[in-house]
């Protein structure tokens, strides 16, 4: 059995040539330790920055998205220092102030969670990010802030409180040191992060916030529940008893010393590997209760032919190498879709993934990206209005394009376990949430029993 930890040395990935995804040599037998949850780390950083005193995050994720959040908060006047370990972050709130520049990279959590914090700052804060971030939807958060009398401007333009709010990066927030708060309507059908971003800062608004979601669908409900939970954990009063309406009372945010759960969505490709290669993969530190959508992995992988058990904080998935197709609605857990799509392409029967139209606004248009890259390997994957239909076909090697999307890269690795010659373009993009991915993947495979047939 192999123990895989995030600090395992990464296989040097040949720059430009891509990373040749290793084929599984036989059934797996590995225990994997994944780093802290991106979603929890970035929420807890925001709350620590708005708290009534210094706080500590232990087991925090250190990755591009988390480091961009740290840098963004520092630029607003918050002190964030490393403790004894890189994953220990000591946060000391300070007066929030501009002028400041926030680089969002490609991080949805940074571009949606920090504008409401910037609105509390005294001064102007300019937001921008990667080229690919400039097409990710932002409008409802910015229009929501504008409706609360916050000045919002497009690009280099001056912030305004009337007229149409910008719909994408870059934009400018004109903080006045406080936000009135009150009531706001937001259409969050394109991203749950519009709701989470506004709720996270809302206790610091003069009147708190009543937010009503006006769209027909709402993705990623577990992530909104996660927001409500972390707010309650720091003493904020939140009423979520009415469908699509959240009320956050104004009040202080208590400073805390907290431990971050491991990132269950990042555990996905490792656990799924057991279905593809056969054998057993365990993920340590699995929480007994969690708001992370990765909690659905046990049921999903079971539906696809695996056997999943959770005991003593260890999630164990065993597979035979035979994968079953599924018809599944993933609107609550869109983050898992790239992993499930890769499994579907290796299954013995067709799959339908539904409820994930909003994936078109993720790191890339994930529906288009998955369809075209699975097709590039010889598979059959078609986009539907709200998802994908994947019909298994014999696959062959090719360079799998990743479009700066960490989950495209991990999905390619999963396909490569079975399909010789899969080369993952820009595997370094996994550093968005999982630096050291290739090293962890190699070490997981090193535990494979030598000599067993490759399926
Ligand atoms: O709030 C969060 O931490 C997240 C919410 C989800 O966003 P969407 O609702 O935009 O899918 C999820 O996909 C993303 O990876 C993280
Ligand atoms: C959609 C994702 O990220 P982001 O937080 O940038 O939206 C993701 O990690 O799958």
How many distinct domains? 2
Strand content: 15-25%
Terminal residue distance:
21 Å
Query: What strand order characterises the main sheet?
Result: 1-3-16-18-17
Q: What is the C-level CATH assignment of the largest domain?
A: Alpha Beta
Mean pLDDT rating: 94
Ions, cofactors and other bound molecules: shikimate-3-phosphate, phosphoenolpyruvate
Structural class: alpha/beta
Biggest sheet architecture: 5 strands, mixed
- Please state the second-level CATH architecture of the largest domain: Alpha-beta prism
Q: Which regions are unreliable across 5 or more consecutive residues at pLDDT < 50?
A: 8-15, 449-455
Mind telling me the C-alpha Rg?
22 Å
Percent of residues in helical segments? 25-40%
- The CATH superfamily name of the largest domain is Enolpyruvate transferase domain
Total helices: the number is 12
Tell me the overall shape. globular
Word description of this protein:
29% of the residues lie in helices and 22% in strands. It has 455 residues and is an alpha/beta fold. It has two domains: 216 residues, Enolpyruvate transferase domain (UDP-n-acetylglucosamine1-carboxyvinyl-transferase, Chain), CATH 3.65.10.10; 212 residues, Enolpyruvate transferase domain (UDP-n-acetylglucosamine1-carboxyvinyl-transferase, Chain, Alpha-beta prism). Strands 1-3-16-18-17 form a five-stranded mixed beta sheet. It is globular and about 60 Å long. The two termini are 21 Å apart. Phosphoenolpyruvate (PEP) binds next to α3.
